[in-house]
Design a protein that fits this description.
Radius of gyration: 16 Å
Largest sheet: 8 strands, mixed
Structural class: alpha+beta
Number of strands: 8
Distance between the termini: 45 Å
Order of helices and strands: HEEHEEEEHEHE
Oligomer: single chain
Strand content: 25-35%
Shape: globular
Length: 158
């Protein structure tokens, strides 16, 4: 039996948004321009109901709410989604919900953001501890890239 396609849009809940772990860093493009980078990942499961399949499904839905694209295509421009909240914190807007993710970021990152520097938004489908070290984050990104477990988009300030 054929089921109708899902037509309602996914609106991330406040709990899901709050549970996302984030990391920010500065990088350079192939032309040498500075690029702000933002990684969103799920945290490791806290209950037996949070299976890898459930976590992936949630993260893919978050990716859809942000209009992110796969690593196999050029990252889409997902429009302005970031708002400076304090000199060291930004808020990320998701479609379909009034909730925003507050993201701590260093002052150099927020200063560049306020000057119009673009942001590469990377969403990982697999869990990563919020206390991961830079080396663990690099390893996560390398592994997830090889396995095509990342979604991408470009954004900027609202």
């Amino acid at each position: 039996m054929l089921m109708p396609a899902r037509t309602e849009s996914f609106a991330p809940s406040a709990g899901l948004i709050a549970s996302l772990a984030t990391t920010t860093w500065l990088d350079a493009t192939s032309t040498g321009a500075t690029l702000c980078c933002l990684l969103l990942v799920p945290q490791p499961p806290r209950t037996f109901h949070e299976t890898p399949a459930v976590i992936e499904q949630r993260m893919r839905a978050v990716g859809e709410a942000l209009h992110l694209g796969p690593a196999t295509a050029p990252p889409p421009d997902i429009g302005p989604r970031l708002r400076l909240f304090t000199p060291a914190e930004v808020a990320l807007r998701f479609d379909g919900t009034p909730y925003r993710k507050r993201i701590p970021a260093g002052r150099p990152w927020t200063l560049l953001l306020s000057q119009g520097t673009p942001v590469a938004l990377v969403l990982g489908l697999d869990p990563l501890s919020p206390s991961a070290t830079p080396a663990e984050i690099d390893a996560y990104l390398d592994h997830a890239t090889l396995r095509q477990r990342l979604l991408f988009g470009h954004t900027r300030t609202e």
